[in-house]
Amino acid sequence: MLATQVQRRTAALENKSSPTWTAQAIMALYELPFMDLLLKAQAIHRLYHQPNAVQLSSLLSIKTGACPEDCSYCPQSSRYDTGLKPEALMPLKQGLETCVTLGMLKQGQEPACTP
Ligand code: SF4
């Protein structure tokens, strides 16, 4: 049954139509042994991506801690004592230089976001 659901899901993705999942199929997928899940994920990954290519992503925190919001999962919120030492907003020039150092930007390249 699970194989059928995965095939339907794959077919739906290939047809760019909206896939339909049943709660039973989701539970069956959720309860798969990890290596079986890994195998299925790898098979689907290979349908759409270069098999051995990995996209590398980096995050740079330009302001750490003292956030006035209350997202309960986030240690940046000032409402929780996480032991995190707040740091002021990183100056733009330092942020850009750090991005170049980390390989996130090439020297002289404009960032994709606006300051
Ligand atoms: S996710 Fe963290 S940093 Fe972002 S708004 Fe919520 S508390 Fe602030």
Structure description:
This protein has 115 residues and is mainly alpha-helical. It has a domain at 2-48. It is 40% helix and 0% strand. The chain has four helices and no strands. The protein has helices at residues 2-14, 23-30, 34-48, 92-101. The mean pLDDT is 82. The protein binds iron/sulfur cluster. The site of iron/sulfur cluster (SF4) has 6 residues, from loops. Residues 67, 69, 71, 74, 76-77 line the site of iron/sulfur cluster (SF4).
Outline of this structure?
This protein has 4 helices and no strands.
SSE order: HHHH
Q: Could you tell me the mean pLDDT?
A: 82
Count of discrete alpha- or pi-helical segments spanning 4 or more residues:
4
- Radius of gyration, CA atoms, in whole angstroms: 21 Å
The main β sheet shows up as:
none
What portion of the residues fall into strands of 2 or more residues?
under 5%
What proportion of the residues is helical, as a percent range? 40-55%
SS elements, strand count: 0
Shape: extended
Q: Can you list the ligands bound to this structure?
A: iron/sulfur cluster
Measure the end-to-end span.
50 Å
Poorly predicted tracts of residues: none
